[in-house]
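Predict structure. Chain length: 493.
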Amino acid sequence: MVSDFRRLVLMSWLFIVASLTVWATGGPFSSTTPVPTEYAAGFANITESDSEQILRHLVEGDMAGRGTGQEGFIKAAKWFASQLEANGFQPAGENGSWFQNVPFIKLLVHADASGVQVNGLECIAGTSYGIGSFAGIFKDSIPVTFATLTNSPPEVSADQYVGRLLVIQAGRRFSAEEEFVLKTRPACLLIVADDGRVRNEAVNQSDQTPGAIPVAMVTRAAANALAAKCGAAAEFFSDGSPTQNLILDSSQIVDCRLSIERESIDVPNVVGWYQGSDEAVRHEHICIGAHLDHLGVQRGELYPGADDNGSGSTSLIQIAQAIHANPLKPPRSVLMIAFCAEERGLLGSKHYTTSPLRPLSDMVCMLNIDMIGRNEESSSEPASENVNTIHLVGSRDHSMQLHQMVEKANESVGFVFEYDEEERVDGRSDHASFSEKGIPVTFLFGGFSSHYHKPTDTMDGINFTKIANAARLNYLVLMMASGHGRFELDAKP
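Prediction complete.
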């Protein structure tokens, strides 16, 4: 056993080395305080070069955008599990495995059996179709109606579009279950959407009832090609949300074909457990997670998902490495989860919280990381203004104790926290599944950019220091929370 004096010398040396290493790599931002000595070795283990290496493997390897239900995601899940195992984690999934299987229905558009023709000419190719809630085959020659709808659609008559193809662009997410559709009862519905939402292969919840009306998503370019052929304006469907309710009934007869296959599959969450060092509290745990999935390959095009959410997944692996590298281990245990199907509506995290593998009552808090690899940018805010900013979502609204701990940890990292996206994103990432169960949460979010859900979300423009610093911050919060009492949720008025 090392004497108290030798232990003090060793920890002091580790602190000095850690501090020098961090500053040498440009880790924490300016005006930061030294890392607490007991966490210094793990903190110093997190480097920008590792951030780049891990993310490059996730993005440029054979994981093909990590689409839930696609082979690339399974490869990513197995690789992520191997990284946890290499860093001292134990499998915490089902039947002694690393995985918690989540049941899904997979839907796939058969492009060669789908399309819309006018006078024998293809206006909408099958590659422009994406899945909705319908599965099956539809084929008919019918007239077509085009519509743009604001959030306040016009009054319509019952059965107004019976026997017609209805092509709609709406000001919000739209489905075949909308009152407008149920009342008018079209023969087939095509919903116009941005390319990133038109997915020819995706998964839905297994208990979702298939739509009674044949429905599919369609790209705006394809919908406009059909509209122009049927006598409408060439840009009938504009970029962005519709600004007016506009309905055009065409007398043109179109040949509409739709073929969508449905099958049951299982897709895993990756679940690892790092046992706490204190026998009295090791049954309690800190959960930290990020979604591993992205859009995968859609309509033949790769969506790499470097920022969304290769960046958060990278940060998770670096936190696992830091825990394992640090001499002082967390007193409570750590539950690390790489979620599937966040892009399909938080389905992986929802499944975990409804079928938890460890009691939710033993979960002290949940730390979520999503899209922390780019500098936020918009038409009014250039990326250069957000090199060291990050959104801290959830903690301030749910547990000031946890929020203050994050602020304390940030003294050694130096992020500038922003709070102007909370209403927009608080329910849109996996922490929300845990918050709904009354668990204190934090959510680190880098903000949106022009690459969001686009094939351009590649390694170009990634801020590796931001990824590393997100890992450093959450590593410190995790270690501090592990030795802390239970957090209380703030009372709501």
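Summary: The chain is about 30% helix and 25% strand.
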